[in-house]
Amino acid sequence: MRQTWRWFGPKDLVSVDDMMQAGVEGVVSALHHVPTGAVWTPEEIAQRQNEIATRRDGSPSGLRWDVAESLPVSEDIKKQKGAWRQHIDTYKTSLGHLARAGVDTVCYNFMPVLDWTRTDLSWSVASGATCMRFDYAVFAAFDIFILGRKGAALDYPEEIAEQADDLFRAMSEPQRDALAKNVVFGLPGAAEHFSLDDVRMHLAEYDDVSHDRLRQHFVDFLSEVVPVAEKLGLRLCCHPDDPPFDLLGLPRVMSTEADYRYMTEAVNSPANGITLCTGSLGARPDNDLPGMMERLGDKVHFLHLRNVKRDTAQLRGSFYEAEHLGGDTDMVAVIAAVLREEKRRRQAGRSDASIPMRPDHGQDILDDHNRKAQPGYPAIGRLKGLAELRGIMTALSHPAMAGVVESGK
Ligand code: DNO
Fold first, then answer.
1. CA-to-CA distance for 73 and 90, rounded, in angstroms?
2. Ligand 1 probe mutation, 12, 28, 242, most atoms within 8 A of CB
3. Residue ranges of domains in the chain, CATH in brackets
4. Residue 189 C-alpha to ligand 1 middle, in angstroms?
5. Which residues contact 174 (CB under 8 A, 6 or more apart)?
6. What is the pLDDT of residues 8-55, one digit of tens each?
7. Which ligand 1 atom sits nearest the alpha carbon of residue 72?
């Protein structure tokens, strides 16, 4: 595994120098300031590469930009409305520019309107650390009462809708505003910043987009961009829905193993791959992460290693972002499955035998509380996650463990 680290660019409060001290081997970044649908130009790409390659004192960092996350897919492409054909051309152009610059792994997602969604960006756990949380009843309160989406109450189990009612009544105006902000404005690095009216307008645009239709639009998009990526020697990798179930009446089509199987088979190419995000997928108890890595591993081009603790056994429910080894996903089993996949690749002579991973998110601990970097991307909490994951990777890669890792026991 190649140990990478997400960097939001020069505005990131965690610097290139910081990530070097965390011992990372490569960098994940994006041109967040370029509006979705516009070309990532060679000049802008070169500038970001240069920023990554340079320490604060001007000396070389030795780091390179390995993964683009995300090259965003426009709403027009997802809906097949407006400028969608032009946006697909733009996407292909940006892929060409990235390939020529040597950035060969490109992550994206296909979630309508909202990317990852949380109700609390700073939720306290017993240790005094804070983390992000998705509370289903609080989210329902936002949807039914703050956003006021028509028919929203019917999308929730009765007891959740009742809890949402109580929660909403107990909230002060500032608390309601803060919740709306967490849900719609809290996305790290998002180019767009939505108001509630923007969200309402976007939702209305999806009135006639069912799951099947969104899935078809996704396949249409892949049919266009995957052959281009394949020729360029790129690896595209789709990030799962987070959380992995429908929100706000919008369809979500990348939430399960079956979804991944469908999309990788619909356009079968080594360039059409997966970002296995154990945190996003792990919010659903029916996603067996070690098994998914074992079965889909061949197509996994990028790993987000993160853990969540679920409140319930329901398919849709609340969860919080646990420590990397502390949640419901068996991280040791996932890493063992990754190591087996890497071994298969080495034996097959594949050039992508070392899969880039990043410690995804992290709890805010110690000095993170003062630094206040991007939600989910603290310096120390992430470093702790990386150190723990690295420990497992190192131990399981030791010759003494060879038999154990290979037998999957
Ligand atoms: C959240 C991230 C996501 C991810 C996109 C990929 O922390 O993992 O925002 O970058 O969904 O397109």
1. 10
2. 242
3. 2-117+186-407 (3.20.20.150)
4. 9
5. none
6. 999 999 999 999 999 999 999 999 999 999 999 999 999 999 999 999
7. 12
